[in-house]
Amino acid sequence: MDVLAVDHPLVKARLTVMRDARTDNATFRAALHELTVMLVYEAMRTAPVRTERLHTPVARTEGYWLANPPLLVPVLRAGLGMADQAHKLIPDAQMGFVGLARDEETLKPTPYMESLPETLAGRPVFVLDPMLATGGSMEYTIRLLTGRGATDVTAICALAAPEGIEHLEKSGLPVRLVTASIDERLNDSGFIVPGLGDAGDRQYGAV
Ligand SMILES: O=P(O)(O)OC[C@H]1O[C@H](OP(=O)(O)OP(=O)(O)O)[C@H](O)[C@@H]1O
Ligand SMILES: O=c1cc[nH]c(=O)[nH]1
Ligand SMILES: [Mg+2]
Predict the structure, then answer these.
(1) What are the binding positions for 5-phospho-alpha-D-ribose 1-diphosphate in this chain (predicted)?
(2) Which of 75, 183, 198, 201 should be mutated for ligand 2, with most atoms under 8 A from CB?
């Protein structure tokens, strides 16, 4: 699996704000918004473009448009905090939604929402979820997408645990990962260490 850990001082600085237990919900959301812009920017680096000649007020030149904008799929709740910023960067993108809650005992994802286009053949998909922990939620989401014909999926995550990366690698699913950090490990409760806690709760409050 292709894994890109974006190594940049601005990425590290936003992530530090998110990791800090003293950061309040609003500041956490703002840092995730800014981090998302940087991760999506990197994820789009290799996106195909279509060119067309145009006139500036001064001369003729080449213009560039995205040839095949990705479908954006935030995984609720926590991925909602990445959706608007990704959409601002790629205004032509369509958006789908998946809602999952991880069972605190079994660590398995429980689905509660799915709103996706019927067919995804030939369409790149960006899954937006700040956390790749065991990898169960991401695997579930990608299987929904491949079931509709997707063959080109990018997981965009603020943090990834080595266990989650290994899980996706073993799954054989067609996915690449763009992340701000590969952390040390999971703890006994399935939380990423050092991590940032529960990304949904840190944005919206505990449920
Ligand atoms: O890799 P995994 O072990 O599956 O864990 C990762 C999942 O856990 C978090 O969601 P959570 O279930 O806490 O839901 P929430 O976004 O509503 O808080 C996170 O946003 C991922 O979706
Ligand atoms: O550390 C973790 C692991 C799963 N989900 C989170 O929100 N945080
Ligand atoms: Mg949560």
Answers:
(1) 77, 102, 129-137, 198
(2) 198
**pTM across the whole model:** 0.98
Determine the pLDDT at residue 48: 97
Sign of CA dihedral 187, 189, 192, 196: negative
Residue 47 confidence (pLDDT): 98
pLDDT value of position 51: 98
Is 71 annotated in a binding site? The answer is no
Domain CATH code at residue 138? 3.40.50.2020
Q: Quick check: CB of 186 below 6 Å from ligand 1? A: no
Q: What is the pLDDT of residue 122?
A: 97
Q: Ligand 1: which atom is nearest the Cα of residue 133? A: 1
**Number of separate domains in the chain:** 1
**What ligand 1 atom has the least distance to the C-alpha of 200?**
18
Q: What is the pLDDT of residues 85-107, one digit of tens each?
A: 999 999 999 999 999 999 999 99
Cβ of residue 100 lying under 6 Å from some atom of ligand 1 = yes
Q: What residue numbers bound the domain in which 143 lies?
A: 3-204
